[in-house]
Design a protein that fits this description.
The protein is about 45% helix and about 20% strand. The protein is an alpha/beta fold. The protein has three domains: about 190 residues, Alpha-Beta Plaits (2-Layer Sandwich), CATH 3.30.70.270; about 170 residues, no CATH class; about 260 residues, EAL domain (TIM Barrel). Strands 16, 17, 18, 19, 20, 21, 22, 23, 24 and 25 form a ten-stranded mixed sheet that branches. Strand 3 and strand 4 form a beta hairpin. Helix 7 crosses helix 8. The radius of gyration is 52 Å and the shape is rod-shaped. The chain binds ligand C2E and calcium ion (CA) (2 copies). The site of one calcium ion has 4 residues, from loops.
């Protein structure tokens, strides 16, 4: 296994991602619920505390008064016990004006002074202060104070009425029982809890004060609650919103997308993850301004989000890319919907011909063996979106508004492209690229006249790979320029070593990709490489593919001129394959014209095809060019081309591309 890197290597795992996931979860789970619960809890706690406090204060006041009343009545009961046979004492008690009754053990009244206004509440109710327990009865006439579950209750409404009556002292009557005669009898006397108006007002003010403080605390908590809810909403909005379009951002898309896809109710639905790319964004910003570009992105977002239906989502993913999650019934219906969206996007700015492209990844419902839809429990919208983006990436080189659906072939292509990309550098360093030579023969004499150098990749990981599988990838990623230099260097070295060994070498053509034409000194680079190997220039021919002639004509003419001035022959490869290059022939003085293999295939191989071929040969001759026919496999074709004075044939009829040892034997043979 060669050195290289694998994306599964832990050092390539994004360590921040896990932390971010946790953060997203936290933001998602922060809700107003906690704050509201806290608010309610604190409010109730405060109320309870206020009530308890008010209760304590009231109880303290009542207890103080109660002790006073009890002491007073105790004195009366003692007097009664001492003097109930003594008229003087009884006269004194009567004249004292205190109302009381004495009952025997059966509850029968045996003695009474004043009026008996004990309330008719049945049974005794115990009132306890901190040290003793007493039996008390409410006064049926006043009812300000009444026993209540072992405590004294206060009727505040009556109390308030008394205050309004503007009396200085409020007297609260209560009946209190004291055991006398060793517990055989009870003296139940009327005691008066008297409050000055000032005390009552103080108590009421205190209660109101506590109430107000409680209310203020409620308000403070409430304001705090509202503020924290508002702040939370703001943070969430910022977290999930996109600053350019004010719409949703990628984080939101991932969170919501995953939720939607994993929801039980979505299991029978088919979803499409769509990557929408606005290709001209950078140019648009260059011609206008960044802020106009961003305004344009914002418009795109508006159009896209207007297309979103219930259960679907849309977000601004990166610079000029938008992400959609759509539902669909059939691929056809989805295709037409997406085409409509593309149309709307194009109509946005009629002055420019903007290019929008879409990559689509279809997510059909997952079913069990009985066809029952299953929940997409572990689906990751990021992975699914990546597939959609991989589909749109294949449109990169196209300038048309297009939609590309993701499929397993594309995944394979992508994987292959990645593994080629991963290994290209080390392959070059380890000389895994091998030069194969395909001889070119004179059709009349079958004498070797030249050869074309064609690359093969002998990779320990990928096996023996033909150029069709990696050249297009190198052309895309730019590595082709390095490979072409490598090939020229190897061919020049081979030629030089064969020359030195006494072989009569023939010119070998090397392919130079169109990607090189952005370099002004291409001709000099080639010259230097060949010179380094000390190979004569006339043994190296440069093949330029026909399609390259349309890139930058001026640069091309320049480079061809310089290459020729250094003594290299230059050929036009693949003549006739798709592009019309008659015009290029007019402008550029080339040495060799290579007829594309297509001339000898299928429908071209008929009589009309022959006319075209013979005319092309004539044209080349008239322009002083040598002509090579590529891809010739049949004897009849060879005979025909010989008749037409074609200079060379490069095709399987004579030889396939071969390793250099085999090619060398052909040079030797041709010499014999
Ligand atoms: P090309 O330059 O047009 O090369 C000719 C291709 O046609 C070669 O395929 C050759 O094997 C094939 N061929 C020749 N005669 C026949 C025939 O009679 N029948 C059939 N069916 N095929 C024939 P190969 O070697 O697979 O190369 C494919 C393409 O890869 C080349 O097309 C060229 O565009 C590119 N390529 C190969 N080596 C290099 C290189 O070193 N640099 C660059 N830039 N491109 C290269
Ligand atoms: Ca070629
Ligand atoms: Ca060719």
């Amino acid at each position: 296994m060669k050195a290289g890197f694998k994306m599964s290597d832990p050092k390539f795992k994004n360590i921040h991602k896990k932390e971010n996931e946790k953060l997203y979860k936290k933001v998602k789970h922060i809700s107003s619920f906690g704050s509201i619960t806290m608010y309610l809890f604190l409010s109730i706690l405060f109320c309870v505390m206020a009530v308890i406090l008010a209760g304590f204060i009231l109880e303290y006041i009542i207890e103080t008064k109660f002790t006073e009343a009890y002491t007073d009545l105790k004195y009366v009961s003692e007097l009664y016990e001492l003097g109930n046979t003594d008229n003087t004492v009884m006269d004194y008690l009567r004249s004292d004006g205190r109302d009381f009754i004495v009952t025997d053990s059966s509850g029968k009244v045996v003695y009474q002074i004043g009026e008996n206004t004990i309330s008719d509440i049945s049974g005794d109710i115990i009132f306890s202060n901190s040290t003793e327990t007493y039996t008390v009865y409410a006064d049926s006439e006043s009812g300000y104070l009444y026993p209540n579950n072992g405590h004294l209750g206060v009727d505040f409404m009556r109390l308030r009425d008394s205050l309004e009556m503007d009396v200085e002292n409020i007297e609260l009557p209560l009946w209190l029982s004291i055991d006398i005669n060793g517990g055989d009898r009870k003296l139940v006397g009327k005691t008066l809890f008297s409050f000055s108006k000032r005390d009552a007002i103080l108590a009421i003010e205190l209660t109101i004060g506590i109430g107000v403080i409680t209310l203020i605390m409620f308000l403070i908590f409430f304001i705090y609650l509202i503020r924290s809810i508002v702040n939370y909403k703001r943070v969430v909005k910022l977290f999930y919103s996109d600053p350019v379009t004010s719409g949703h951002n990628w984080v939101w898309y991932v969170r919501n997308g995953n939720e939607r896809l994993r929801k039980a109710s979505s299991k029978a639905s088919a979803f499409a993850v769509v990557d929408v790319v606005f290709k001209n964004y950078r140019n648009y910003c260059l011609c206008h301004s960044i802020s106009e570009g961003e305004a344009f992105l914002s418009k795109i977002y508006t159009i896209l989000s207007a297309e979103i239906k219930r259960g679907e989502i849309c977000a601004h993913s990166t610079t000029a890319v938008f992400a959609l999650l759509l539902r669909y019934d059939s691929e056809e219906q989805l295709r037409s919907r997406l085409n409509d969206i593309l149309q709307k996007l194009r109509n946005m700015d009629k002055e420019h011909n903007h290019v929008f492209q879409m990559g689509v990844n279809l997510l059909e419902p997952v079913t069990d063996e009985n066809g029952k839809p299953l929940k997409r429990k572990k689906i990751s919208i990021e992975n699914e979106y990546n597939n959609a983006a991989a589909a749109s990436a294949t449109l990169e080189s196209s300038d048309a508004c297009e939609i590309r659906f993701f499929d397993s072939n594309l995944l394979e292509e992508q994987r292959w492209s990645d593994s080629v990309h991963e290994r290209q550098m080390s392959a070059l360093d380890n000389e895994e690229f091998v030069v194969y030579y395909q001889p070119k023969y004179d059709p009349k004499t079958s004498i070797l006249r030249g050869a074309e150098a064609l690359v093969r990749w002998d990779s320990p990981d990928l096996g023996f790979v033909s150029p069709g599988r990696f050249i297009p990838i190198f052309e895309k990623n730019g590595f082709i320029t390095r490979l072409d230099h490598y090939m020229i260097a190897h061919v020049a070295r081979d030629q030089k070593s064969w020359l030195d060994a006494g072989y009569k070498c023939v010119p070998v053509s090397v392919n130079v990709s169109r990607a090189h034409f952005s370099e002004n000194d291409l001709a000099e680079q080639i010259r230097d490489i060949v010179d380094k190997a000390e190979c004569p220039h006339d043994l190296i021919e440069i093949e330029l593919t026909e399609s390259a002639f349309f890139d930058d004509k001026h640069a091309m003419i320049e480079t061809i001129g310089r290459l020729k001035s250094y003594g290299f022959a230059v050929s036009m490869d693949d003549f006739g394959a798709g592009y019309s290059s008659l015009n290029s022939l007019k402008d550029m003085s080339l040495d060799v014209l290579k007829l594309d293999a297509d001339f000898f295939r299928g429908e071209n191989a008929d009589e009309r095809g022959q006319i075209v071929i013979s005319e092309a040969i004539r044209l080349a001759k008239n322009l002083n060019m040598r002509i090579v026919a590529e891809g010739v496999e049949e004897k009849e074709q060879v005979d025909f081309l010989a008749d037409q004075d074609c200079d060379m044939i490069q095709g399987y009829y004579f030889a396939k591309p071969m390793p250099k040892s085999e090619y060398l034997s052909r040079i030797a043979v041709s010499e014999a």
